[in-house]
């Protein structure tokens, strides 16, 4: 679709011929332009992928930190008990 728009076809014509909406096609073209360095108004696909990966990693690290906090409290209580 992107190549057809770049070749001169309008997103509206392509939307009539194929299933996606004209707005979807325009969005694809804009993203392809970002990925190719033709636009600087947003993140490239690689940047979006990296951002998603980093967000997942941060979420996992926060969960692990909470588990370690709880474990530290548990073991601190256990070592403070008289035997």
Describe the structure.
This protein is mostly helical and 83 residues long. The chain folds into 2 domains: 1-42, no CATH class; 43-83. It has helices spanning 2-6, 11-17, 22-35, 45-80.
List the helices and strands and how they pair.
Elements: H1 2-6, H2 11-17, H3 22-35, H4 45-80
Helix pairs in contact: 2-3
| Rg, nearest Å | 25 Å
Number of domains: 2
- How many DSSP helices? 4
Unreliably modeled segments: none
Shape: rod-shaped
Terminal CA distance reads 74 Å
Q: How would you characterize the largest beta sheet?
A: none
Helix content: over 70%
Q: Briefly note the structural class of the backbone.
A: mainly alpha
- What is the number of strand segments? 0
What share of the residues does DSSP label as strand, in percent? under 5%
The whole-number mean of residue pLDDT values reads 95
What is the chain-wise order of helices and strands? HHHH
Top keywords for this entry?
83 residues, Transposase, 4 helices, coiled coil, rod-shaped, mainly alpha, Homeodomain-like_sf
What's the quick description here?
By secondary structure, the chain is mostly helical. The chain is 75% helix and 0% strand.
């Amino acid at each position: 679709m992107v190549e057809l728009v770049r070749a001169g076809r309008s997103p509206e014509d392509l939307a009539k011929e194929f299933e996606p909406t004209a707005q979807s096609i325009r969005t694809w073209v804009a993203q392809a332009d970002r990925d190719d360095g033709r636009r600087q108004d947003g993140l490239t696909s690689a940047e979006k992928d990296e951002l998603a990966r980093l967000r997942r990693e941060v979420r996992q690290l926060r969960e692990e930190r909470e588990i370690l906090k709880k474990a530290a409290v548990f073991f601190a209580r256990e070592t403070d008990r008289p035997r």
